[in-house]
Write a structure and sequence with these properties.
The chain is of the alpha/beta class and 248 residues long. The chain has 2 domains: 108 residues, Rossmann fold, CATH 3.40.50.10860; 129 residues, 3-Layer(aba) Sandwich (Rossmann fold), CATH 3.40.50.720. It is built from 8 helices and 12 strands. It starts with a strand and ends with a helix.
């Protein structure tokens, strides 16, 4: 039996286990199963892989960056981003890291993007934000990162510095933070929503709940909105291909 899973903490929000269980059932895959592993510390990873004899893992908050030091090899995207959300475990025990968030976000964004969405605000600066920045740079879309941290690097501003004019000038707004994720569904990133209009596109990487407060506020202002569910499916399928392909 082949074993796959998801590491992160917390994992109550995750759809991955159900997604793969449904996939295995619908496609008649009987030699594999998928489990959630809520690690309280990334140092538990080697023991988990050894005890469970895992074949592959997905990685979510807060370990997409911390997991890299445990990998024996990484693909060029992980090397560039310093963020990993997919691990292939080889028969000799070696671990190779990939980033399928890039694949999932690229496809799901491009399917809905229009020429007017030519400048972006990225809310957050974690591992998921790195994947978003990578794709925006590929597409030639300039962006400004917004963070709650102090002592920010160039190209990043604090939420308190974000003005109505800045929001109006950036018609693409992407939430990469967990703010608004189940069970904290009454929370949303602190941006001036009154500056959002019909020309805006709000993309939330969160997929549980289906419509976050961030997206609801955008819809109320007439903006195009999208959650992260299709991105989840695309990145999950990319991970499945990696785990099962001899090319990787």
């Amino acid at each position: 039996m082949r074993k796959f899973g998801l590491i992160g903490c917390p994992l109550e929000h995750s759809f991955s286990k159900k997604y793969f269980a449904d996939k295995f059932r619908s496609e008649g895959i009987t030699d594999s199963y998928y489990e959630n592993f809520a690690l309280t510390d990334i140092e538990q990873l080697p023991g988990l892989i050894h005890s469970q004899q895992l074949n592959g893992l997905n990685v979510t908050i807060p370990y997409k960056e911390k997991v890299i030091s445990y990998l024996h090899e990484t693909d060029e995207v992980v090397q560039s981003l310093k963020a990993c959300n997919c691990i292939k475990v080889y028969p000799d025990g070696k671990l190779k890291g990939f980033n399928t968030d890039v694949t999932g976000f690229r496809i799901s964004l491009k399917d809905q993007l229009t020429p007017r969405h030519n400048r972006a605000l990225i809310l957050g600066e974690g591992g998921a934000a790195k994947a978003v920045r990578y794709v925006l740079e590929e597409l030639g879309i300039p962006y400004l990162t917004v963070s709650r941290r102090e002592n920010l690097p160039s190209g990043t501003i604090h939420y308190r510095e974000l003005t109505n004019e800045m929001v109006a000038r950036h018609p693409l707004i992407i939430n990469t933070t967990p703010v608004g994720m189940f069970p904290h569904v009454n929370a949303c990133p602190p941006i001036p929503y009154e500056a959002i209009g019909k020309g805006h596109f709000l993309f939330d990487l969160i997929y549980n709940p289906e419509t976050t407060l961030f997206l609801k506020k955008g819809e109320e202002r007439g903006a195009l909105t999208s959650n992260g569910y299709r991105m989840l499916i695309l990145q999950a399928e990319a991970a499945w291909q990696i785990w099962n392909s001899k090319e990787y």
